[in-house]
Amino acid sequence: MLIKYLSSLFLIVISASGWTSSIATANTFGATGLKLFVYNTHGLPTIFAGDRPSERFPKIGILTQRFDLSLLQEDFAHHDLLVQHIKAAKVYVGADEDFAKCLFCSNSGLTMVSNLDSADWEISTVFEPFNKCSGWLGKSNDCFAQKGFQLIDLKNNQGNRIYIVNTHLDAGRHQLDREARATQLDEIARALEGRAEGEAILLAGDLNLDWDSAADRVVLQDFVQRLDLILAQKGGDERNSWKTLDYIYYRSGSETEISTISSGEVKALSQNGEPLSDHPALFLHFEIH
């Protein structure tokens, strides 16, 4: 126990000092450390974004090189620019080719970037579009986007498996929006109950559930308790004007244990102390063993 504690303490120290590599490393006690980046990129078309995405997305792409896995949301209109600055990493986009597109419709905006060595890791992904949305003309216009979730099956050559969910739920503050979010979480839960029963899970993204809203907290907690999830990190703090809507949750499985090392907000994507997106950039450093 003392050795395991000292090992974890050492990893915390080197992580805080910026010494850790962007590639997952196995320590001498059999645990594998992974660094996760979670970010709603505010990737609307420039005319709607209200800033300069052409300046932000290269920075986001470069930053993903420092993490083993990056889960991005709202990667809508500037994906090609993002990929130009990702280099050799593998990019997985959440999309359903059968989605009925319209003139103004967009894709899911969900992207996973992996810097894991394919010799050590097996990755398979599926994308599931949500069956319900709220708002065409009004209520944040969510139905124009193919919202859903990426379900990533990640397994290393030591036999550790973890199911990762990257998602972006319905926006808006109307009761119909909240009901849509509850339905979407139910879809995620049913998918995990069917495919990842007893397995380790990591779920992250923009849930659009306001931590300070009693009604939203009920929806969130019902989902968390259903899957026995633990909160690793939530976005937003007293320095920021936006609501806390971004989360990272996890649970251990019967064969794979998840241990958190450190988490917080990525300051590299900030200017004058404020993140460049309208959401904070989150990170989680954790071990699986």
Topology:
Layout: H1 2-16, E1 25-26, E2 32-40, H2 46-49, H3 53-63, E3 69-73, H4 79-84, E4 90-93, E5 111-114, E6 121-129, E7 148-156, E8 161-168, H5 175-195, E9 200-206, H6 214-227, E10 230-234, E11 246-251, E12 258-265, E13 270-271, E14 274-275, E15 282-288
Parallel strand pairs: 2-3, 8-9
Antiparallel strand pairs: 1-2, 2-15, 3-5, 4-5, 6-7, 7-8, 9-11, 10-11, 12-15, 13-14
Helix pairs in contact: 5-6
Q: What is the tally of helical segments?
A: 6
Which CATH class applies here?
Alpha Beta
What general outline do the C-alpha atoms trace? globular
Task: Sketch the topology as an H/E string, one letter per element.
Answer: HEEHHEHEEEEEHEHEEEEEE
Distance between the termini: 15 Å
The CATH topology is what? Deoxyribonuclease I, Chain A
Q: What is the makeup of the main sheet? A: 7 strands, mixed
Overall number of strands: 15
The fraction of residues in strands falls at 25-35%
Which homologous superfamily in CATH is the superfamily?
Endonuclease/exonuclease/phosphatase
Account of the protein in words:
The chain has 289 residues and is of the alpha+beta class. It has one domain (35-288): 4-Layer Sandwich (Deoxyribonuclease I, Chain A). Helices cover 25% and strands 30% of the residues. The chain has six helices and 15 strands. It has helices at 2-16, 46-49, 53-63, 79-84, 175-195, 214-227; strands at 25-26, 32-40, 69-73, 90-93, 111-114, 121-129, 148-156, 161-168, 200-206, 230-234, 246-251, 258-265, 270-271, 274-275, 282-288. A hairpin with a 2-residue loop joins strand 13 (270-271) and strand 14 (274-275). It starts with a helix and ends with a strand.
